[in-house]
Fold:
Amino acid sequence: MYKFFSALLLAALSLLFAGSCNDDSFSESINDRLTFSNDTITFDTVFTTVGSVTKGFKVYNFNRKHIRISRAYIKTGQASDFRLNIDGMPGKDFENIDIAPGDSIFVFVEVTLDPVNDNNPLLVDDAVVFLCNGNTDEIVLEAFGQDVHLYNGKIIESETWTNDKPYLILNSMAIDSGEVLTIEAGTKIYLHSNSSIIVWGKLQVNGTFESPVEFTGDRFDRGYGRSSGGWETIFIHPRSRDNVINYAIIKNSVRGIQVGQPEEPVRMPSLTLNNVCISNSSFSCIFAFGAEIVANNCIFADAGYYGLVFLLGGKYNINHSTVSIVGAFSVDAGLFERYSRDAGGACVALSNRYYPHYAFDNNYVFYEKTLYNDLAEANFTNSIFYGNRDLELITDNHAEASFNYFFDHCLLKQNADSVDITDASHFRNIVLNEYPRFINDSIINGQFNFRLDTLSPAKDIGTLEILDKYPLLRYDFEGKLRTTDGKPDLGAFEREE
Structure:
């Protein structure tokens, strides 16, 4: 009996103590105020007619009593470009929102902006207003709106893109067979997640040093402007020939440019790159199958795995280019992370085969096979290949097809036991395993800068022969004459003392 009464007394005391800590009544005191996790919610560039990412903040009740928000609403009313969701309920105007003592609620915000017919971002601002116990609190909302040309899963005929305002690609877009897309200097192209530019016809990019054409992802929040893998690729179809890209920046993709695809018979799509920078791709800068590619004064940098992947043979000439593969970044919970390259990777990978290729026989039975095709030539001249692995050149040679490659006056990082640079059939004047002394070779440490410092071993050791073959190479990535001090430097940049 004593234990029974003791238990009743303990329960009564517990209820009394709980009641003294948390009063179920609602406070009406002007001194009991709300607390907010943010005072301003800012959306970076939001493309007009396209919804933003979702951002949010929390509203806390740190008072001893329940508190009732008599009204929470968007200041400019129903016409506002902003939208709210408060504890799972969408809308723009809410009443009688209760918060228990020590508890909180989530407020989520989105915005869709109307076209502003202006190539410059336009600030759109508003506020979320909270009325509670005679107090008025405001959380500022602001977004920068950018009008765009929107292409949503569209197949286009011949047309010209100018820099009057950016181009936004949703759900990919394609250039039809026999048609030409011309992109003029200074044009910016933004691609949404999983989107590509598919070239069945032909692509002509006419950037300049002062006004390059830019291809990048369409997210700007939480560091995504620097993150890799934000969109897929520029895909050059195997039937597409004579594509030219001059002065362009291609960044933040999965594969910067894919040229061709494994198929039988193997075709030879063609692409010329002049003064192009492809960086921060989650897989590779270029991914090619039996293609014909010429690259002059180019930078291929900071990919997750590979710089240049040339499979299933083809013809390649890479001149006065800088390939530096030290990893790429994704964004996770607002933090930058380096992609793991333990599974493989290199500055250059060469192969005259592709496996497995999936096909059907005459009886429509599915099977796997290996495709082979001649690597007719893969010439690398006056270029730098340096990364964070011991093997920055991977070769895969099979007797079923020819395998021709040649590194001429190059700086190459490669385990000395894995390569014979005295083999005149593949190498001439190679600087092996010396750091090229870039100003900054990785976006990991900020904005990369592949110019050479004054002590670089890549200075003044290039061959002049390639300048006669490609006259545009007499000038470097920035338009500086390469022969002012005699012989050219390796890579895309000529050092000026």
